[in-house]
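Feature request, filed as a ticket because there's no other form

It would be nice if the structure record came with a short human-readable summary line next to the tokens. Right now we just get the raw output. Example of a typical job, pasted below so the devs can see what we mean:
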Amino acid sequence: MKKIWFAVLAAFVVAGCSSAPDKGTVSGSGEVEREWVEEGVTKNYVFARGMGAADQALDNKTQRMATSRNASIVSAQYNMLSFLKGVNLEGGVTVEKAIETDSVLATKINEVIKGAQVVRTEWTNDDGCVVILRLSKKALKAAGIKLAE
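Raw output as currently delivered:
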């Protein structure tokens, strides 16, 4: 059973890595690169990166990897929200200002960000994790968020 679980996890990681917008967030030696090229926004997607540290007090490597991955996803979601808050909507107002007056919009944005796809997951030598999230502009539009072009 452990072999099957590991194979599924490995296939997921490989599939996620193959669709990533950039490569090389963790070097071949297992250390985080000193310089990253952020994609940010492309024609169809908004990208965000997050980094999470592992609790070194945990004896189990799988637990360390899982907790650092969860932390990096939360970090990436926070970074994506921070980026989106500064984006202008149609009409010239920023998302941040619109959220202040529209709690439904705030809820929609949070839901859309929670649905962002993990496209790359990498672990460091100390079981820390770097994750890249991808959010479709179509998903934003479907939630009623029309970004100014």
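Something like this underneath would help us a lot:
The chain is about 45% helix and 15% strand.
Residues 1-22 have pLDDT under 50 and may be disordered.
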